[in-house]
Design the sequence.
């Protein structure tokens, strides 16, 4: 499978992130949209008349929408249906609801970030206000979720593609002047996600050590003592 | 509502799971709040003494906070730098330390004070209950306090944390779990009114 990709775009990152979590190999073809504007060239418009990234070439079709690419990868490669709960009507609908929120975050927080980073024209104050409204709603949902023992956007033991779709815009929000300080439950949720095994990063997204690894670090002095001991034997 | 001089709640005890560094502000002072593996709560200036990076994007590792940028580590309690990865065999100079603030954990809330004047003020004795969701409001603390008094909400004790210019956080301790959602919605309505009164558009 080939992904038409750009390293700085959250929508492309979401697809790379999910494929990493699923252990699916993607070939990447970088499209230089800034400053190269290759996404407006005829060669790319022939693949995607919308001129947007990413595009996932599945071999059967070109998927021109990042959320469609997430749906495809999960439905095709996750046999446990953990990332896209197709057999559970309630949870599947909840995933779709959050994907719609992710789309709204793209047009608010995502637009604010493009405004601040490459000077894209938009009503910046309005975009930031819209993003904060969405984050307030998400904060309330996650806070009450935590109280009920739910770690993820959609109730259940495992994260879904909804978490991935929101995460990529939430974690880069400060690059668009949207602080995450008012959203502590959202901040904790981004850390839980970043602690998942095989969690890919991009520029501006910091790693979180797995909690087991931090426990190893905690006993570092003991480790040193142990290795010193074994060295003498 | 209880007004407290100097001391303010800046986080809930439940905001501090293992490994997490909570980000907040008090009277314009950026704060990083975290709990060590041994359970000690720390309120530090949210600023690494190395290059000024926010501690709150870092991670708590055991009884130390590790900065995200160059992984310098700082000890719970004292704030002293314990480890510099670029110089693993040297003991960091004693002058390298995080700026720490006093901490009292009471009623499920973490209290601190950042004001220079240490002569006055105590942490109020609070009744046991359930800590509510913190609600940020884009209005000054005095305005929010007045609105809370006028609203005469019952079933909880409220505290207002002055964040920075024109921003505050309402914290509260509800009498019981059952009233959490109702009170949360009441506060959201109050926030909508307060922010609408002041809306730019
Ligand atoms: S800025 Fe914190 S270790 Fe360098």
Sequence:
């Amino acid at each position: 499978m080939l992904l038409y990709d750009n390293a700085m775009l959250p929508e492309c990152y979401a697809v790379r992130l999910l494929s990493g979590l699923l252990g699916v190999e993607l070939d990447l073809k970088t499209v230089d949209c800034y400053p190269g504007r290759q996404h407006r060239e005829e060669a790319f418009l022939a693949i995607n008349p919308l001129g947007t990234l990413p595009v996932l070439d599945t071999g059967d079709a070109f998927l021109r929408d990042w959320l469609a690419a997430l749906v495809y990868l999960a439905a095709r490669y996750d046999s446990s249906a953990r990332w896209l709960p197709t057999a559970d009507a309630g949870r599947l609908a909840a995933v779709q609801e959050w994907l719609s929120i992710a789309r709204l975050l793209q047009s608010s927080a995502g637009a604010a970030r493009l405004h601040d980073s490459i000077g894209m024209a938009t009503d910046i104050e309005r975009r930031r206000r819209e993003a904060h409204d969405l984050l307030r709603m998400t904060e309330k949902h996650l806070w009450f979720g935590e109280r009920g023992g739910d770690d993820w956007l959609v109730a259940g033991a495992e994260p879904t593609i909804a978490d991935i779709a929101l995460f990529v815009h939430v974690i880069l929000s400060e690059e668009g002047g949207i602080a995450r300080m008012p959203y502590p439950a959202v901040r904790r949720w981004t850390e839980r996600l970043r602690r998942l095994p095989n969690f890919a990063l991009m520029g501006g997204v910091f790693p979180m050590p797995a909690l087991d690894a931090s426990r190893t670090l905690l006993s570092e002095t003991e480790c040193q003592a142990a290795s010193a001991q074994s060295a003498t034997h | 509502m209880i007004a407290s001089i100097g001391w303010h709640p800046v986080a809930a005890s439940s905001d501090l799971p293992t490994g997490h560094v909570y980000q907040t502000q008090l009277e314009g002072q950026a704060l990083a709040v975290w709990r060590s593996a041994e359970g000690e709560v720390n309120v530090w200036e949210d600023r690494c003494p190395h290059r000024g990076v926010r501690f709150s994007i870092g991670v708590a590792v055991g009884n130390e906070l590790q900065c995200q940028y160059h992984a310098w580590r700082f000890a719970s309690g004292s704030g002293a730098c314990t480890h510099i990865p670029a110089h693993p065999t040297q003991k960091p100079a004693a002058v390298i330390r995080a700026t720490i603030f006093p901490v009292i954990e009471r009623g499920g809330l973490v209290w601190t004070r950042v004001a220079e004047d240490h002569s006055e003020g105590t942490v109020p004795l609070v009744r046991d209950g359930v800590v509510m969701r913190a609600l940020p409001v884009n209005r000054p603390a005095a305005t929010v306090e007045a609105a809370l008094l006028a609203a005469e909400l019952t079933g909880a004790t409220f505290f207002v944390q002055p964040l920075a210019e024109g921003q505050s956080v309402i914290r509260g301790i509800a009498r019981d779990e059952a009233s959490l959602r109702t009170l949360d919605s009441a506060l959201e309505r109050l926030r909508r009114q307060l922010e609408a009164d002041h809306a730019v558009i």
Q: What stands out?
A: Residues 12 and 54 of chain A are 5 Å apart (CA to CA). The first helix of chain A runs from residue 10 to 22. Residues B 48, 50-51, 53, 67, 69-70, 72 surround FE2/S2 (inorganic) cluster (CB under 6 Å).
